[in-house]
Known about the structure:
It is a single chain. The chain has 151 residues and is mainly alpha-helical. The protein contains 4 helices and 2 strands, in the order αααββα. The protein has helices at residues 4-16, 26-38, 43-83, 105-136; strands at 85-87, 92-94. The protein has a two-stranded antiparallel sheet. A hairpin with a 4-residue loop joins strand 1 (85-87) and strand 2.
Amino acid sequence: METSNEKSIGSLIHLSTLSQYLIPFGNYLFPLLLWSSKKDKSAFIDYTGKQALNFQLSMLLYSLIALIIAIPTCLYWFINIIERLEISDQQVTVREIITAENISGMVILGIVAVIIALFLKLGEFFLIIYASFKSANGEYYHYPLTINFIK
């Protein structure tokens, strides 16, 4: 049975990952500080800290993969659009931007990758809130799609 202090710290570890929206790399630093200061005193806090950090590292990996796919494909599409611009003295004319040639598989792949990256961030936000509620109740929560980097 976990004490109320352990439950609070476990919930705070999960919620501290939301600091990424205010402080760069706060989603790694704050949970790591909280976890490393109390991990030897409680098995619950040790488990919670590992889960929070593993989830953040997994989300970083998934987001990087999505961005590695999205950025080059979107740049390719943007360059194709720029090549189709006709610039004269005081006028810019756009020739055939939306054609079957421009909306290629690469563009669709890039758009899908951007959408996946957005859903990852949205899902991450809600899973963090859910995990903090579970920890506040003293339950051991395992994030879905998490790679165990820290065992």
